[in-house]
Automatic annotation (TrEMBL):
Primary subcellular site in the record, as a coarse category: membrane
InterPro entries with a match to the protein in the record: GLCAT14A/B/C (IPR044610), Glyco_trans_14 (IPR003406)
GO cellular component, one term: membrane
Lineage: Eukaryota, Viridiplantae, Streptophyta, Embryophyta, Tracheophyta
Protein name per Swiss-Prot or TrEMBL: Uncharacterized protein
GO function term, MF aspect, one: glucuronosyltransferase activity
Record's signal peptide: none
Amino acid sequence: MPSIIDPALYMLNKSNIIWVRPDRSLPNAFKLHTGSAWMVLSRPFVEYIIWGWDNLPRTLLMYYTNFVSSPEFYFHTIICNVPEFSKTALNHDLHYIAWHRLPRQHPRLLSLTNMRPIIASGAAFARKFSRN
């Protein structure tokens, strides 16, 4: 997996991410997981992330430091690797999202014309709406 350096962390002006080689090897102490960056976390899980009695949250924080979109990995990897929390994870992000036919970074904008498919989806949340 490639490492990255994000100059936005230390530069005033925005610039492109720098990809660093060589790729790092995959870990064998835990299994990597991914998911949506939009999530709801329980209080006991957040307390575990803060206090992390087995050091996994801090280990993964260091592992994902130079990762693109680390929120899409960090929380999912923790919850799926800790037996007491893995049973609480849903394999659905509960969002209605309309993507473009060709994958892009951002979803299509939703409006009132999308209400029927949003309601039919049964999702609790929807994104991304225009400001109007």
